[in-house]
Amino acid sequence: MKILIRFPNWLGDLVMSIGFYNKLKEAFNTAKIYAISKSSISELLKLFGNFEKIYEFSKEKYNGIFGIYKFSREIKDNYDIYFSLPNSFSSAIMGFFSNSKERIGYKNEFRNFLLTKSYKKPKNLHRVQEYCYLLKDYISNPLENIKVQLHIEPENDILSLKSKYKIAININSEAQSRRMSIPKWTKIIEMLLKELDCYIILTGAKKDVNRVNWLFESLKDKNRVINLAGKTNLIELSKVIKACDIMLSSDSGPAHLSNALLVKTIVLFGAGDERNTAPYNKNFLKVIRLNLDCSPCLKNTCKFKVPICLENLDETLIVNSLINWLEK
User: Fold this and answer.
1) DSSP 313
2) pTM to 2 decimals?
3) Of 181, 240, 189, 231, whose CA–CA distance to 209 is shortest?
4) Which residues contact 38 (CB under 8 A, 6 or more apart)?
5) How confident is the model at residue 166 (pLDDT cuts 50, 70, 90)?
6) Which run of H or E residues covers position 288?
7) Which domains does the chain have, with CATH numbers?
8) How far separated are the first and last CA of the chain, in Å rounded?
């Protein structure tokens, strides 16, 4: 049997799809698994398990419906089942053009006619569970014992740093409503450096370099701060995070990555709804948020100039929560 999976486009969602992949292997333990992934994050699939082939897709190379058609014909290979994890029309039509016999996904964006099985998304499930629910016709317990874990060796250069603690900090997020201001991050990091024998490791993708550099330059004490923004791919970032004792992060993909690596992860939540999209492993997670009347708004842009759900968080509360969890 050949199974083709269209994986999600965002890093956090891709990490949350690990549970689906593990359940799929449980249901089809002899099947050949093929993957379609956004090219900028596809390398992370190397940590999931064995794929027959990983197809990298980018809108820049395959633009519009014609681009999707061209891509789908290039990867056509008589697949028995196609799973569309994203809810977009484009992901459904990709399965249709690939000529997969069965095409499975959720009802959305007028795409039902492109799927042979289109399910109504159940309410009150975590996104990890939403992905696994698509396997309900193939496995009796798709929502039980879901494992969202990645395994990798830690980065030796970080492990060898001469301090009691190594703290990874991610200040970035795709959405403005999930990004706290640089002055507030500066205050938090300076408090941590004062209170702890630690190194701070700043993470970030290439698109985050300017913002992280701004933070780095604003710090008074840079001797125990390592700026890795734009200097790691996802595999290298995973090794760096695995070498750390804890991750402090905005609501973002790196927070999910840290949690899946079973590293203690504190997430500052603003616009997002942690009941649906928080990192999945609760034993390695602490969520800090303000319960304002406007949150969770689920919007990418805050109606205020800055997201007050994050700006009004108490820095001392954040720092003390991190210290207390570290020193347990």
Assistant:
1) S
2) 0.96
3) 231
4) 7, 9, 56, 57, 58
5) very high
6) strand 285-288
7) 2-133 (3.40.50.2000), 156-326 (3.40.50.2000)
8) 48
